[in-house]
Amino acid sequence: MKRIFLSTFILCLTLTFLQSCNEDVDLIGEFTETAVVYGVIDQADSVHFVKINRAFIGPGNSLEIAQIPDSSYFKSVSATITEIGGEGRTWILKDTTVTNKDENGVFYAPEQKLYTFYSNSIDNSNSATGSALNPSATYRFKAIINGGEFEVSGETKLVSGITEAATNPINHFKFAQNPGEYKSSSISASVGNSYVINGSITTTYNEFVGLTSTPKSFKWNLGEYEVSPNSTRTFSVNGETFYQLIANSCETSDASIDKRTMESMTVEIVGGAEEFYNYILVNKPSSSIAQNKPTYTNLTATNGHPVIGIFSSRFTYRETYVFKHPTIQLYRCLDPKSTEELCIGPITGLYLFCSNHDGDLGQSWHCN
Questions:
Q1: 276, 268, 266: which is closest to 314 by C-alpha?
Q2: What fold is seen in the domain 35-158?
C-alpha cells in the first residue's frame, strides 16, 4: 500500500512540474541573414547571370514558404563585377526576371529574379559597344545587401585555353565501314587551365514537308571528367550509339515528312575552374553512412553573416561541322561511308534520310 501511495505521489509531482514549465518551444530562435550566391561567368558569353538569394526560416511548412518568391529575396541588393587588370572595367548588375525555371523543383517557378551584366558593353546594355571578358584578368564580385547590413564578395580567374586538339576538317566523324559495321571516332580536347571538363555533340538535321524544312536536334553527352591543367582529354564517340540516337530522335508516326537531311554536328567542350570543380565535388551525393559532408565556398561576408554558394568561371568551346558546306566540297561532318549508313543502314534506313552532298551525286541515297 505504501508503494502504491509513493508511486502516485511521484506521478502527481512530475505532472505538476511539467505543467509549471513553459510548453512553447522556439524552434526558430535568432536568425542571421544568410546570402546564397551562385555565379559562373564564361568568356564565350556576352551576357552573364548571378543568382543572389537569401536563406529563409519561419513558422509553418518550409515547402510552402519555398513557393513564395519574397521569402527568398533580400529587401535590396546592389551588386557589381570589377575587372582587375585588362581595361579595369566595372559593371553594375541589373535585376532581371527569367521565366524558364523548371517547375518540378521545390522553389517557386517558372519566374525567378537574377542579376545580369553585358560584358561586351561599356554601359551594361545589350548593345555591343565594348570588348569581351579578358582571359588574363581577374573578376571580382561584390554585393551590398539590405542597404549596407552586410556585404558579400568573391573573385575568380577565367578559364581559357580549351581547344579541340589536332582538329581535322576532313571526314571528321567516321562511324561506319560497311552497312551494319560500326566504328568509333574520338575527340581530343586540350583542357587549358580547367580542372573539370565536359564533352557533348549536338546533331542537327532537317525534316522536309514538301519544300519546307524544319530543323531538329538532339544533344549527345559524352561525359564529365576531372582533369589536370594543360593536359589533354579524349572522348570516345561510338558509331552505333550515334545511329541509335538519331533513330530515337526521329518521329516515325508523322506521315507528312517527305525526307530528312543532315545539317551539322557541333562539338561542345566545357571546362570549369578549380573552385567550380571543388564546389561540384563537395555537393555530390554522399556515399558515407554518416552522411557527413563538408561545405565549400569561395565567397566571404561581413558583419558576421554567413554566405553559401560560388562565384567562379567556366569556358565553353564550340566547333560546328556542317554537312554541306557552301564553298568547301570536302566531307567535314560525316564521311561517305557514315553518310551511306545513315541513309540506308539497318538502324536509320527507314527514317527517310538522303544526302544532299555533291560527293554523293549518282548514289541511290542522294536526294532527288
A1: 276
A2: Immunoglobulin-like (2.60.40)
